[in-house]
Amino acid sequence: MSLPFPIAGSKSELEEGGVFTPRFDADGLIGCIVTDARDGAVLMFAHMNEEALRLTIETGIAHYWSRSRRRLWRKGDTSGQRQSVKEVRTDCDQDVLLLKVEPGGDGGACHTGRRSCFYRRLAGGPQSVTLVFDEK
User: Between 3.40.190.10, 3.10.20.810, 3.40.47.10, 3.40.50.80, what CATH number should domain 11-133 receive?
Assistant: First the structure.
């Protein structure tokens, strides 16, 4: 099965309508924020192309587009951290997705082995900004 992604009509249809019309950028990608469906923790940010989005919807398993490797990847194939998609949301102008997932494996999402890719925060002031490890 191949889901069609129609092109958005008016601004009103895009923002208030009931038709899913994802807006891919000039490179054919759409940003995707990934959270843990159980507690809302932000796990990662990735990109999807049209094929990754179709496969995610069709299989219920998160698929992404790797910009660095220039290829499709199904999350968890190498790390064991498969993501079972519980809900997909889009923002008001349909150019960002939010996936709520149930992480598999050890419950992590980051290729470094951590639960979240956002394991550091900025610290310091205007003269010197550093990164501090802060895994929550």
Answer: 3.10.20.810
